[in-house]
Amino acid sequence: MTQPEQHEIRIKRLFRKTRFGIFVLFGAIVFSTSTLSIRTVSSQLSEEYESNSATIAKNIADSSVDILLNRNLATLQSLVDQFVEIQSIRYIYITSDTGEILTHTFVPGVPAVIRESDPHATEPIERSLPGMGDFVEVGSPILAGQAGTVHVGMDLDLVRLKIQRATGQQIYLICIILIVGVLGSIWFVRLAVTPLEELLSYVVGLARRDASAMTDAKVLARDDEIGEMARLMLHAVKGDAAGAAPNPGPGTD
To answer: What is the pTM for the complete model shown?
Structure first.
């Protein structure tokens, strides 16, 4: 291995920890930002869909008062069928004040999980229906529960898909920033390595008493710390050379 190759290896070793630290730093930033982004988007979209489902349930409850009082179940079924066409709403059913299911959108029939649940519950409940998927169900009372309760089921799979799309775009952008940041940091490290390599080559030349190295204007003319170190080393080498010169003894002409 030649001397210049040895110098290059030493410089790489000098900044190996720096490059590794930069990579770890950017990786930590990407991981923490992605985690926060996923949680924020997931929370916001879930709350938005739950709010929309609760609003739909309330609208159905407000619209079905007269229909329930007249016991017009065909009109009530038609009303429910219109609302279930809204995206993310997968099922709707209405229970009476006694817990009887008056109308629903389940095909072919009401799942056992629904029949066994509390017919008057209005708080958001996560349900897993066999053959249908996972849902969040919200309810709204009709006439403060005296006329029954409207239950609306929101498809969680659709919500998760939208969350994945939203977070995927953000993570894609963050990964681009990571790659650009790492490459940029490596380039900046290289800017710091180049002057050190020049100084190292200059010091080797001084150690060899290379005349061209001792007059290397490129390094000596620098106005930064590298130039100051090069001039200081040159001064030290010249001082050592002057001190090592033979001193003529007494009586010599």
So the answer is: 0.56
